[in-house]
Specification:
Layout: E1 2-7, H1 13-21, E2 25-31, E3 35-37, E4 42-44, H2 47-54, E5 59-61, H3 68-75, E6 81-85, H4 93-96, E7 103-107, E8 115-116, H5 121-126, E9 130-137, E10 147-154, H6 161-185, E11 200-201, H7 217-226, E12 233-237, E13 240-250, E14 261-264, E15 268-271, E16 276-284, E17 290-291, H8 292-298
Parallel strand pairs: 1-2, 1-6, 2-5, 6-7, 8-11
Antiparallel strand pairs: 3-4, 7-9, 9-10, 12-13, 13-16, 14-15, 15-16, 16-17
Helix pairs in contact: 1-6
Length: 308
């Protein structure tokens, strides 16, 4: 097929590569404009845009895809299908059904669960044992189009959002290739979503990472995994921000006030509202991430101290 590919984030790279490897013609990549990034705030092209350039693929960047000129540019390709993966802008209605095989999106959840901006993180935070990927037709309503294919993926007790991002990106790439083959052969029957079973994956902010030590330890441990690598679960110690990179719960009761340090050696054990949290990797404000043992070598944290 002749494909106009819409994507910006790193998550989209495996799908682009898989479609090329399958012999499809990527006529152009549409991605977000360059944005300031990093400590120097220098303009940077989105990851997929940089990758497209290394592959010799034409790149189109538009501040507003709704602009008539941008819409006309996309339509001028006469593509067979528009493929959308982690693009970051709403696709205008004029493009949703313009191509022969319409506009197909890869979404990293088992729709109708976790529609919205953070579908990789929330299943971990909520304690789900599985998630997955879905391909679907894009429609005007948020993540509500007919589902074309789905593939479930288990979530382990140690998987972070970063781990699941990489797993789902690779699996989603394969599912997108299979979806296009099914559309072309006519063997796929689109399935309507059951809106009554839909859930919403709220966009994350740094505020979501503030640890409430009165919560159960297993809930906090899931928050730590679900917010790694961004925005990171965090707490306060000695007036400074401390990011928690890795932790697990210990099902032992404690009579200490939640947030109290119970043990500080190879790991930092903290009292919670129910059970204990064992922190194995953390990061002091202005420093790098390190193991609990290395952290304690440079910081006088001890039993009886408190995280706030």
């Amino acid at each position: 097929m002749k494909i106009l590919f819409f994507g910006s984030a790193e998550f989209a790279i495996p799908t682009l590569d898989a479609l090329m490897d399958a012999g499809h013609d990527i006529c152009e990549v549409v991605c977000q404009p360059d944005r300031p990034a990093g400590r120097g705030q220098k303009l940077a092209t989105p990851p997929l845009g940089e990758h497209a350039r290394t592959k010799g693929i034409s790149l189109f960047q538009s501040e507003k895809l709704r602009d008539p000129a941008a819409i006309a540019h996309c339509l001028a390709h006469n593509a067979d299908i528009f493929v959308v993966v982690a693009y970051g802008q709403i696709i205008p209605n004029e493009l949703l059904t313009a191509a022969k095989y319409k506009c197909v999106n890869l979404h990293p959840s088992l729709l109708p669960l976790y529609r919205g901006a953070a579908p990789i993180n929330w299943p971990i935070i909520q304690g789900d044992s599985k998630t997955g990927v879905s391909t679907m037709y894009l429609v005007e309503a948020l993540d509500a189009g007919d589902v074309l294919m789905q593939y479930p993926v288990n979530i382990s007790d140690t998987d972070t959002a970063g781990d699941m991002h990489d797993k789902l990106a690779k699996i989603g790439a394969r599912v997108m290739v299979e979806t296009l083959a099914g559309l072309e052969s006519g063997k796929i029957t689109p399935q309507k979503q059951d809106d009554s079973k839909s859930t919403y994956a709220e966009k994350l902010s740094k505020e979501h990472g503030a640890i409430k030590w009165e919560l159960p330890a297993d809930v906090i441990a899931r928050l730590v995994r679900g917010l790694n690598p961004w925005p990171m679960a965090h707490t306060q110690w000695n007036g400074k921000l401390v990011k928690i990179h890795m932790a697990h719960d210990i099902p032992l009761a404690s009579s200490e006030t939640p947030g109290t340090i119970l043990k500080a050696d190879d790991k930092i054990v903290v009292a919670t509202g129910q059970g204990r949290l064992a922190i194995t990797q953390l990061q002091m404000e202005g420093s790098r991430a390190m193991t609990a043992a290395d952290f304690l070598n440079g910081h006088p944290l001890k039993a009886g101290d408190k995280f706030l």
